Amino acid sequence: MLADVMLAVMWTGLTCYALFGGADFGAGLWDLLAGGSRRGLPQRRLIEHSIGPVWEANHVWLIFVVVLLWSAFSPVFAAVLSTLYVPLTLAALGIIARGASFAFRKASRALWEQRLFGACFALSSVVTPFFLGAVAGGVASGRVPPGLAEGDAVTSWLNPTSVLGGVLAVLTCAHLAAVYLCADAARSGEAELADAFRRRATAAGLLSGVVALAGIGVLHADAPELFHGLTHRALPLVILSAVAGLAGFALLARRRYVVARAAAALAVAAILWAWGAAQYPDLLVPGTTVAETASTDSVLTACLVTVGVGTLLLVPSLWWLYATFQAPETGPAPAHEPGAHGE
What we know:
about 350 residues; mainly alpha; two-stranded antiparallel sheet
């Protein structure tokens, strides 16, 4: 019972990272595609204003999930990190490079420096979610056996399911970011910019749907246990994700950006929980269950108490942070012109 509660708490943290950190990564993709330093300036300025105060705070959720996995399900932690160390290391380097580049670009004055750091920020924002999605695909397809380094260091993350997971992660992040940025632009009174991101959100959402539909065949052939779970036990959550996604398109078309945010978040959250439901009670496919890998009740109780106390501090702090920086940007425009490309 305690192990299931801990798993639900951990999955909630993973969902928060996908919704908040994922949108940050997606903003980097739109930064990459914004265009030259003059044409792309309004988009990049909005991206900087939207994610600048919160991008580092959003990684709290990733740390939260990793620490809980280590504390509550240490055999799974050991198996995943020892088998999937290549994509996890690349993702960690991408997170570091992304944050450093974002900070350095804002502090740079020379245009060539802004372009260099902008390109690094944007490219690392694309490759990092890809590697994280590849890790999820390796776990979901049963390529991470229990034990230390028992899985293949290459094929565990270079396989059809992992590639599907990586591509979907990039597209989902792009969709979330564009939907969120629509509301930020509208709040700032920039209707033209909101329409530009509305078109991007729709395109990324449609492309995500196409890839997901194509992925049905991939999962059927490469991850049959996951496919069976998604089409049986987790089917209601899959349907909920699809309905929320379609509702999001309708809300975007009507320019109901705030509600569209909720619909997009629900679509992503539902598919994440569908994965969890499809795989449960296994943490490692096949056959390595939650009960077998959980820590003792005393450790789980201590973890849950710590999480409860931390939640009382973390949630109000994050709410205050988000609320404070959701106001429209005021004051003179920045003197530099952030850009990843030439004019």
